[in-house]
Design brief:
Blueprint lengths: L5 H11 L5 E7 L4 E6 L5 H9 L22 H24 L5 H14 L1 H12 L5 H14 L3 H33 L5 E6 L2 E6 L8 E4 L9 E11 L1 H4 L5 E3 L4 E2 L4 E11 L7 H14 L3 H32 L3 H15 L2 H20 L7 H6 L32 H12 L5 H11 L5
Antiparallel strand pairs: 1-2, 3-4, 3-5, 5-9, 6-7, 6-8, 6-9
Helix pairs in contact: 3-4, 3-7, 4-7, 5-6, 6-7, 6-11, 7-9, 7-12, 10-11, 14-15
């Protein structure tokens, strides 16, 4: 449950990657799932190693569905962040007004801010320090500790608060991605009508075998990928194919799990299990897409691999070589080294990337545009032309009668009246468009 970003992934890779018998590690950050490919007789050593770096692993059994815990920022945590931010801002304000960075009011407010929001970051920093991993949490802990040592209490509180906000934003981004996958998976119903002997019984979708005869009634979602054996109907597949107009289905046609039978009644024979349906494979594809970080996010991750050790090395050189080369007091050079750690903490860089990605994805969603991940969002800057191939992409996706041209002896009004009377009790979308066109007087 503690694996939520590439920082933890790198920590796990460093801990497990060099263990004897471990061949490959695959990570799914969206589901917080680690797959270890190994040649070990007992994997308890892997679990112990994960526990040593602050993880609480739970081993998954074969075919067990992954049900990750929610990562949305709890209400209590939001209030703690807000209180921490208020205390940090108050500490900065008091320090600026009094020009005293180490007064009791400043230190009290800063300590309160750190206590409210700094616990998780400082804990991860201590774990990184114990395992000699120079990651962002290690640098944050050094920066905060250095700021306290040189008397910059307000700065320490503000740096820690901003980083806590960045991690909360990343958790929000992960939750948005997870909800998108869950919403797609929820398109398929939980139960299906399955024929057993001469009766139709309700059965959990996961228990329906391949080759079972299922029934779909008007208004219901298709529970499994199947082939129609009898009946006719109009099926809305827009959630899967993007095509908004219903598709007529009859014997021999393919049905997709998650599509909606809008008109008619169908019997079909299942061709895939619930876990291998088109809908399930789409959900897997989205998860894979979410795991692909945007180029800028990958740059930040790669940058941090070299930036953090370089900053620590430079700070050590300043503290050690400064007094020796200048002959001045070592306290002064230690102060300079700690100042470097404080100002070198890349808070703005850490905050800016997830904020930008989440804001872009949210803005697109409000306009009805679904973007699969940050990588595709960033690739949009290269677009120079766009081709749209489906009705419904730029329209409402509902058929409407626009013209009526009579053939034969009827007038337009008579022809429309006859067509509407025939379609009045039909639930087919095109039939309803004819009825609405007559009711509101479509122009001949």
């Amino acid at each position: 449950e503690q694996m939520a970003c590439p920082t933890e992934e790198r920590l796990i890779r460093q801990k497990l990657g060099g263990m004897s018998g471990v061949e490959r590690l695959d990570f799914n950050l969206l589901q917080r799932e680690l797959t270890a490919h190994h040649r070990l007789d007992d994997v308890s050593g892997l679990e112990t190693a994960l526990q040593q770096i602050g993880m609480v692993p739970r081993r998954l059994q074969a075919d067990e569905p992954v049900l990750p815990p929610p990562v949305a920022v709890p209400v209590r945590t939001r209030w703690l962040l807000a209180a921490s931010g208020a205390a940090a801002v108050a500490a900065e304000a008091v320090a600026w007004v009094t020009q005293d960075e180490v007064s009791w009011p400043v230190m009290s407010l800063a300590a309160l801010s750190i206590a409210l929001a700094g616990g998780p970051t400082l804990k991860k920093g201590w774990i990184a320090l114990r395992h000699l991993t120079l990651n962002i949490h290690f640098l944050m802990t050094l920066a905060v500790g250095g700021a306290l040592l040189i008397g910059q209490w307000a700065e320490a509180a503000m740096v820690l608060f901003l980083f806590a906000v960045a991690e909360a934003i990343e958790a929000l981004s992960l939750e948005r991605a997870r909800k998108a996958v869950q919403a797609l998976s929820a398109l398929a119903p939980d139960v299906a009508w399955v024929k057993q002997g001469e009766d139709w019984v309700s059965q959990a979708v996961g228990e329906v075998p391949v080759g079972a005869l299922i029934r779909v009634r008007p208004g219901e979602r298709v529970p499994l990928d199947a082939v129609v054996t009898s009946g006719q109907g109009a099926v809305n597949e827009s959630a899967l194919t993007g095509e908004s107009l219903p598709v007529d289905k009859s014997t021999g046609d393919r049905l997709l799990a998650g599509s909606v039978l809008e008109d008619g009644s169908l019997q079909a024979r299942s061709t895939e299990s619930a876990g291998r349906s088109t809908l399930a494979r789409m959900a897997e594809a989205i998860q894979a897409a979410q795991a692909q970080r945007a180029p800028m996010q990958r740059f930040v991750d790669e940058f941090a691999r070299y930036y953090t050790p370089a900053v620590v090395l430079i700070a050590v050189c300043i503290a050690v070589l400064g007094p020796w080369l200048s002959g001045s007091d070592w306290h002064e050079w230690l102060y300079e080294a700690l100042v470097l750690l404080v100002i070198a903490c890349p808070c703005a860089l850490v905050v800016s990337t997830p904020v930008t990605v989440v804001s872009g994805l949210a803005a697109g969603a409000r306009q009805g545009i679904l973007i699969k991940g940050g990588a595709h969002l960033e690739a949009g800057q290269k677009l120079r032309a766009m081709a749209l191939d489906k009705t419904g992409t730029l329209t409402e996706g509902r058929p409407a009668l626009t013209d009526c041209e009579p053939l034969g002896r009827w007038s337009a009004a008579e022809a429309l009246l006859l067509a509407a009377s025939l379609d009045e009790h039909s639930t087919h979308p095109v039939a309803q468009a004819v009825v609405q066109g007559w009711r509101f007087g479509a122009a001949p």
